Amino acid sequence: MNQELIASGPLLLTSEDGVHVLELRNPPANALSTGLLEALSRALDLLESSPPGALVITGGNGKFFSAGLDLIAVLELDHAGVEMLLSRLVKVLLRIFRLPFPVVAALNGHAVAGGAILALAAEHRVAAQGDFVVGLNEVQVGLPLPAPLFEIVRSQVEVREVGRVLLAGRNYPVEEARSAGLVHAVADPKELRDHSVALARKLAQVPTAAYSRMKQLLRSEAEFRIGTQELDTEFLRIWFEPETRKAMHEARERLRKKK
Question: Going by C-beta distance under 8 Å and a sequence separation of 6 or more, which residues neighbour residue 237?
């Protein structure tokens, strides 16, 4: 029996026989806006206070799982605004990364930049077949990753691939994304949700304490590197470099022409 737990704002959280499904609803691209990040924070409060057997995160039925930060909007922010948004983004993604129960990302469409990191915060990733891409393209607009988010990526992508993935800044077609370790499996779009919920339900049958501890150990090296430095001041400095601003403005104009 399905039960709606949060059904307002830019997300929907439902319970399906012990498995919770968190669906992003921030059209057109499920951008990680301030509003969506605040809604995710509230959902995480609920998930942490009353842990489900497992969690599935999806972008619904659209063409985007998430396009990451809204580049058109964030370029208007001053230093304080960028710092606040970055802090919220890092905190939310780290909270997902640290959830002590199974988390499955069901990539219904494109997952790029911050959207790809949202997917990588989950330990299991299933992507829909189709003309979709998964990638970390920040370097193409003159940005590194904030250090804590870099550690999420480094812990989740195979060692032989992570440098290539980050330094090239490519968006990978789904099958290439699987070869690079960005996703683990590919499913028919019509079956993606059911496939992901079934996987989550199977993982929920693993004894909770054992799963949680194993997940904690797998992430321990990343957590050591993250330490208490959840805000990357060097990233903020680079964000406002003239070369970076020029690259981001050019990327924004390309996005506007596409729209």
Answer: none
Whichever domain contains 155, its CATH number is 3.90.226.10
Q: Is 218 contained in some domain?
A: no
Q: Burial, 150: exposed, middle or buried (Cβ in 10 Å; 0-12, 13-18, 19+)?
A: buried
Listed residue (133, 126, 101) closest to 210, CA to CA: 101
Does any domain span residue 124?
A: yes
User: How confident is the model over 7-60, as pLDDT tens digits?
Assistant: 878 999 999 888 999 999 999 999 999 999 999 999 999 999 999 999 999 999
pTM: 0.95
Determine, yes or no, domain membership for 213. Answer: no
Residue with tokens 């919220």: 88
Residue keyed to tokens 């780290």: 94
Reply yes or no: is the peptide bond before residue 28 cis, omega within 30 of 0.
yes
Domain span including residue 62: 2-207+226-258
Number of domains in the chain: 1
Tell me how far CA of residue 154 lies from CA of 23, 139, 148, 226, in angstroms: 26, 15, 10, 12
Residue 235 falls inside a structural domain:
yes
